[in-house]
Amino acid sequence: MMRFLEHDEADDPILSLVNLIDLFLVVIGILLIVIVRNPLNPFSSTNVVVIENPGEADQRMIVKQGEELRRYEAGDEIGEGEGVKAGVTYKLADGRLIYVPEAGAAGALEP
């Protein structure tokens, strides 16, 4: 009769449920750490630039400024946009850059 009064903890189904809850808490904690360490996390106010597939045809750039996210994708054309050629830049042997404006270009110095 004393055998029925002893409680065997290994057969308790509640302990299995408690272990599952503990496992889920650990997984949730790991996911929160991953979110906080992500440079694009919504709780960070820093400015970040993320480049995906650099140098490839499908290169993408994500710019985060404060709470605003902008996504840029590489186009098929090089130098998209409006503008005119304003001059030429030359790199000297010592590493200096020299800019030579073209005659008639906007902002060019007239001789």
TrEMBL record:
InterPro entries, per the entry: DUF2149
Positions of transmembrane segments: 14-36
Keyword terms, alphabetized: Membrane, Transmembrane, Transmembrane helix
Source taxon at top rank: Bacteria
Pfam families in alphabetical order: DUF2149 (PF09919)
Protein's UniProt name: DUF2149 domain-containing protein
Species assigned in the record: Steroidobacter gossypii
